[in-house]
Amino acid sequence: MGLSSEKVKIWDPFIRIFHWTVVTLFFCNYLLSDKGMPFERGGTLHIYAGYIVIGFVLARLIWGVIGSHHARFKNFIPKPAEFMAYMRAMLRGEHTNYEGHNPAGAVMILCLLSGLLLTGLTGWLASLADVFDGWQAGIAAATDFIDWGEMHEFFANLTMLGAGIHITAVLIISHLMGENLVHAMLSGYKKKSG
């Protein structure tokens, strides 16, 4: 089925603000985090950018329950059989247009949200190494057998890998479907199935 020139509103303002804020802060924290750089690991900007990302991801989880139609998880998370059927169709060269996320995109969104939460959580736990009193010190003492800094780096790298796969897939699907999906995430509008 082809695409018409008519556009339909898909991504609400929260989804678009969430997407571009998290993309910007995650990439800043990942790419500009070496010693002496603006988002240096353990530095104020790095930590606060991480807190903002965690806050946005938690808000996105809530929005996934109460938000607009295409933002709700129940409207785009595929069943395993749907995901497998979509992947088999893709391998056969069949490309179906979806108003919102296609099944592979939906699974990637879940992976990225999980990766961001685990990166943020392990970053926070790594920061507790210097805490000596209060409830946070209790957490640090109870988990001091784990190198949270290495775990944080592992999840940051895994999330960056997922982001790279996501970007590549968006570009490929944009080309195959003849629609600029990056622009759709900026404007909120996609072409209607025709």
Automatic annotation (TrEMBL):
Keywords, alphabetical: Cell membrane, Membrane, Transmembrane, Transmembrane helix
InterPro entries: Cyt_b561_bac/Ni-Hgenase, Di-haem_cyt_TM, Hydrogenase_cytochrome
Listed GO MF terms: electron transfer activity; heme binding
GO cellular component, one term: plasma membrane
BP GO annotations: respiratory electron transport chain
One Pfam family it belongs to: Ni_hydr_CYTB
Membrane-spanning intervals of the chain: 14-33, 45-66, 104-126, 154-177
Record-annotated Cytochrome b561 bacterial/Ni-hydrogenase domain positions: 11-188
Subcellular localization, as worded in the UniProt entry: Cell membrane
Membrane topology category: Multi-pass membrane protein
Name of this chain's protein: Cytochrome B561
Lineage of source species: Bacteria, Pseudomonadati, Pseudomonadota, Gammaproteobacteria, Aeromonadales
